[in-house]
Specification:
Elements: H1 7-38, H2 43-81, H3 84-118, H4 124-139, H5 141-156, H6 161-184, H7 189-213, H8 229-261, H9 265-301, H10 305-338, H11 345-377, H12 382-401, H13 403-406, H14 410-414, H15 416-435, H16 437-442
Helix pairs in contact: 1-2, 1-6, 1-7, 1-9, 2-3, 2-4, 2-5, 2-8, 2-9, 3-4, 3-5, 4-7, 5-7, 6-7, 8-12, 9-10, 9-11, 10-11, 11-15, 12-15
Length: about 450
């Protein structure tokens, strides 16, 4: 990352990362497709139950993914400096943090499952299944978080291909087990949740084996398995603001999901199906944000500030082209793709409204994701997080309690996405112009 042409290396990093996210979501979408198509009269209720879990599960996972972003940056900086000792310490510290955090989160999840889900305006026919799905899913958090932290380690050293390969293998198992549990054993949401946990166990084992056999400084060795406090402090300095941002962001989405649930089972099911399409677009843009973080991090560690600035420009340019193509595809094929989940024409039309609003708004997301990623590569994590919390989360909280209360419709909920994302993109750009991290570091030379 610190030598040679950048444009092709950024694409080589971002595309496997985007495919990993998209594939991960396809396997998650398989959960909804299988229960929607093969559970008979329970289909819509099952879809609503799984969909009701999405923002809550995202709250938990994204909170820890924020911390794993700290792992990514610390390792990338250390690789750029050729600091093998810090890389080794960051790898082993992160693996321990992932497992311990996963166990604690799994235990807490069991305690809060019922009161949390019953507070979400979920319909009577779906609420018990939603609670069951949540209990099984959070029970698998230790292996789910382990995979995500392992993936962050590989991103830090510039390798996004191995996490993708691990996900392909586990995803195939996930789809096969979905079909087995639902069609053969006649299970519902509990079957697809169990399949998800088992497949994550497989992917985490594959990456752990790859780390153990790695020829890089990121090699996993049991004798080094301990928490290094100075390295943990560095990881948390970057990771905690990103984690808080993700949690507050997800809290706003939980509120939005509760508002969607209040509109009935059909709307909740349609939104659930549409989410599994729009997230393809998100993973596409997010891959360029993470690419910008890692390329900036390594080049900042190597004190190649011109390459940091060039990484920002190329990630924006390549991201705009790629994201534009993704959005066009989803808008053109959205209704056909929604029909995979259901044959109900009303549900498909409602779902397409969500696809239309959110995927087009993702072009705003691309700008703030890449610019925030650039600043995080320099270790600037708190201010982008605060700006995003104020702009996106603040606007969404206010919107639900004002505009939605007056215009009680699905369209009025969806309108908050382009507004909040657009305002945030402008605010992050202003913040970047104020911070100008490369220019400030150049003045120190």
């Amino acid at each position: 990352m610190t030598e040679g042409s950048l444009w092709n290396k950024i694409l080589g990093f971002a595309f496997p990362l985007a495919l990993t996210g998209i594939l991960q979501q396809m396997f998650s979408a398989a959960d909804i497709a299988v229960v929607g198509q093969f559970t008979g009269e329970l289909g819509e209720a099952c879809m609503a139950a799984v969909g009701a879990n999405t923002p809550i599960v995202s709250f938990i996972i994204n909170g820890f993914l924020g911390i794993s972003l700290g792992t990514n940056v610390v390792i990338a900086n250390a690789v750029g400096r050729k600091d093998a000792d810090t890389v080794r310490k960051a790898v082993h510290t992160s693996l321990i943090v992932a497992v311990i955090a996963g166990v604690i989160a799994a235990l807490l999840g069991q305690l809060i499952a019922e009161p949390l889900l019953r507070s979400q305006n979920i319909s009577d026919e779906a609420v018990d299944m939603a609670i069951l799905y949540f209990r099984i899913y959070v029970g698998g958090l230790p292996v789910i978080l382990l995979y995500n932290f392992e993936a962050a380690i590989f991103r830090g050293i510039g390798n996004t291909k191995l996490p993708f390969i691990a996900l392909v293998a586990s995803g195939i198992v996930n789809v096969g087990m979905n079909i087995f549990f639902v069609l053969v054993l006649h299970r519902t949401v509990d079957g697809v949740a169990t399949a998800t946990v088992i497949s994550n166990l497989l992917s985490s084992i594959i990456l752990l084996v790859c780390l153990k056999k790695s020829k890089t400084d990121a090699r996993f060795e049991m004798k080094h398995l301990r928490i290094d406090k100075p390295v943990l402090k560095l990881i948390m300095k970057i990771g905690i603001p990103a984690s808080i941002q993700s949690c507050v962001f997800s809290s706003a989405n939980i509120l939005i999901q509760s508002a969607i649930n209040s509109l009935g089972t059909v709307v909740a099911a349609a939104s659930s199906a549409a989410f599994n399409l729009e997230i393809f677009s998100y993973y596409c843009l997010n891959s360029f944000g993470q690419a910008c973080t890692t390329f900036t991090g390594q080049n900042f560690g190597a004190w190649k500030l011109d390459r940091c600035k060039k990484s920002l420009k190329l990630c924006l340019l390549e991201g705009i082209i790629t994201e534009g193509l993704m959005v066009a595809m989803l808008l053109l094929a959205g209704r056909s793709m929604l029909s995979v989940f259901t044959s109900n024409p009303e549900l498909i039309e409602i779902g397409y409204i969500r696809v239309l609003f959110i995927t087009t708004a993702h072009l705003f997301s691309l700008f703030y994701d890449v610019m925030s990623g650039y600043m995080r590569g320099f270790g600037i994590s708190l201010s982008p997080a605060l700006v995003t919390m104020c702009c996106i989360c603040g606007i969404r909280f206010v919107w639900i309690y004002t505009v939605f209360e007056y215009f009680h419709s699905f369209t009025s909920i969806m309108a908050v996405y382009p507004i909040s994302l657009g305002v945030n993109a402008i605010a992050i750009f202003i913040l970047l112009m104020i911070k100008r991290p490369a220019k400030k570091h150049e003045s120190q030379e």
